[in-house]
Amino acid sequence: MDAGSAPLPVDFNGYSTTLMDVSITDMVANVSFQRPFVLESDYNMQINVTQTYKVFLNWGVFENTTDTNTTYIFGASK
């Protein structure tokens, strides 16, 4: 069983979501996004291509797109 396809979110501060896929049967979710190295926003860091970065992922289980319950948020705690 797969969770039907939801519309991709609109671009935000230079970020563009290119794929969202959830397989409930396999318990796997994939989200892909793109962003330019240099962004025209005060709220994003500039990416230096000569540096190595770490990504700390967080995810949650929500009833719908307006659910703000934080009980089922998982991932990095630092």
- Mean pLDDT across residues: 81
Radius of gyration: 15 Å
Taken together, the total number of domains comes to 1
- Total DSSP E strands: 4
Topology of this structure?
Blueprint: E1 16-23, E2 28-34, E3 58-60, E4 73-75
Antiparallel strand pairs: 1-2, 3-4
How would you summarize this macromolecular structure in one to three sentences?
The chain is built from no helices and four strands. With 78 residues, the chain is mainly beta.
Salient structural properties:
mainly beta, two-stranded antiparallel ribbon, 0% helix
Overview of this structure, please?
With 78 residues, the chain is an all-beta fold. The protein has one domain. It is built from no helices and 4 strands. The chain has a two-stranded antiparallel ribbon with strand order 1-2. It has a two-stranded antiparallel ribbon with strand order 3-4. The radius of gyration is 15 Å and the shape is globular. The N and C termini lie far apart (34 Å). The mean pLDDT is 81.
